[in-house]
# Entry
Amino acid sequence: MNSGSCLCGSINYQIIGQPGDIVHCHCQTCQKAHGAAFSSVAAVKEQNFKLFGQEALNNHESSPGKFRYFCSHCGTQIYAKREGSEDIILRLGSLDTQPDSKESHHIWVSQKASWYSIQNQLPENQEY
# Structure
């Protein structure tokens, strides 16, 4: 079982089963939200995601129908959710365990930070 938490420990979670394949998102929204060149994410069925510390969870609608959930105390991004989806988009930087998932590809490479060079042979999609 995989588990994770925010920086301050107010939010913890457990995942039943393994997250999906790892995707590296280079969109400008992920860059701003994470203060980094990209965000590494994986899909998790919402029914397999058990969250503890719900009272500390806050959200922001970063694009129409997509909400980013984060700790209201320390700001750690935990996951995102699109309206109508059965999956959450888990922010892998919040994991405390090592998933058995494999890297799949890069998305939104058209918005990649100019100061970052992709150093692997994964497929690169210019958009989603």
In short: The first helix runs from residue 28 to 34. Residues 52 and 101 are 23 Å apart (CA to CA). The mean pLDDT is 95. The helical segments are 28-34.
